[in-house]
TrEMBL record:
Catalyzes the conversion of 3'-phosphate to a 2',3'-cyclic phosphodiester at the end of RNA. The mechanism of action of the enzyme occurs in 3 steps: (A) adenylation of the enzyme by ATP; (B) transfer of adenylate to an RNA-N3'P to produce RNA-N3'PP5'A; (C) and attack of the adjacent 2'-hydroxyl on the 3'-phosphorus in the diester linkage to produce the cyclic end product. The biological role of this enzyme is unknown but it is likely to function in some aspects of cellular RNA processing. One of its GO terms (biological process) is RNA processing. Belongs to the RNA 3'-terminal cyclase family. Type 1 subfamily. It comes from Labilithrix luteola. It holds the Pfam family RTC. This is RNA 3'-terminal phosphate cyclase.
Amino acid sequence: MEIGRTHIAAPNWPKFSDRRGSARLSLLGPRRGKLAAIEPVEARTNALHDRGCEGRKVRVMSTLRDLLNRARWRDGGLHELEVHVLHRGAPNDRRVIAGNRITAVRANGIELAPEADDEDPIFVPYHRFLAVAVAGGAELWSKDHGMASPAAAPVAEGEEARGARLDVVDAGKEIVSEFGVVLREATNDSLLVIDGSAGEGGGQILRTSLSLSMATGKPFVLERIRAGRKKPGLMRQHLTCVKAAALVCGAEVEGATLGSSRIVFRPGAIRSGDHTIEIGTAGSISLVLQTLALPLALTPSTSPSRITVRGGTHVPWSPPFPFLEQAWLPLVRRAGAGIDLELISTGFNPAAGGEVVMTVLPSGPLAPIHLGESTVLSRLRLQGIVSDLSEALARRELTAAGELLKGHPVELASGTVRSPGPGNALWLVARDEGTGIGNVFSAIGASNADAEAIGRSVAEAFLAWRETGTSVEPHLADQLMLPIALAGGGSYTCSELTLHSRTNIEVIHAFTGHRLRAWDLGDSRFRIALVAR
């Protein structure tokens, strides 16, 4: 069967016809093929706890996430902690991870800084955790005994003197950020200078700065680009974003070369029209399109634009195409952006070969996006795809995820896609059909990956977010900030205030004067709202 122009085959799954011809299956047994509203979070949580093992896993993930986040907020980092884990799940291979290697705290695990010349972060799921302790000292949490005591990370000596940290006031109070990204404010004689090593210190600062510069017409200098990374400076993916932005707005650019640690970007007027962008590797198509989309939608031109990008559609550490189509797109459309996406071909790492076409109709000012305190889900869809691999791999992922999602109405689909090289991806779309809000949880697999672990990781990420009862998951929370800033208003709740989000808050303020504010509501719940200057 055909989905867009991508071939999906699901020969051995129960089939029910729907408007896209995809195979689907409900895990509800006698209610097979029917979709019912998911129960409120309180009822779901009680049922989950009644099931014992699954409920304990979710509570453990929530406990560990909260413990690490509290430590990060109090100390501005995790360097006073150490994490004891099982290496690759081996029974007797215990490893100790220094807290300063942790770059992100996710719903279902932590990300570590890459090793040696590897460009990609390392992901460690919570189910491999044995203990969390003060470096060289007492345990704060252990797998056998849980929390040792009401724990908070130690405050490093001289912490009060540091400028870049995040203070959390009492639960339910505003989170006050002193995290700075501006090296020099714009004046009549000089440009705005942004510190590319601040905050998350990677491509996010660059992409947000490019989008805001195009949308506001403000030139900027980005210095110390990715200075703290193993391979500092512009990588090919980042350079593609710079060149694509320059192409669309006729910008004058200095320093746009591989490895460059400094660029100067002076935007011109947005040029509507047809543009083709070749990343040249399996770099993320989604990140390039997101950089260009909203500035094109806000241009005063009445002519549509058609942007074709070739590269990777389902690659690690970047939003896969289903996230772009099912989560990000409905929300920017809700703000009034006239954007359409078409998946032409799928591309995995490293062979690439993916192609996406984005059509943008200039739509004038964006409307504020205000989301409710939580999402009332009425539909779940779990899909796995493979290229040049056995479809059994995707079915094993679906089965493992499905075991954790028992009791939830969910459609399942597996299939093969045509792509130049082997690849595997799994994603779960949790949608509120009434509001159009979608949250996507995904994982990228491989021929040598643990299919069951991939499936469980996706389901666990969904369940951990669902337990918080918030309106959006952390990745979508990051992506919502730019459209809200350009609309001049909006609010939502999320389950984590990530380093990407905190960095976006500061970059947005530097360009627009708008201050996105954040409140810690407790129990892994945060409220984000835009307040104009």
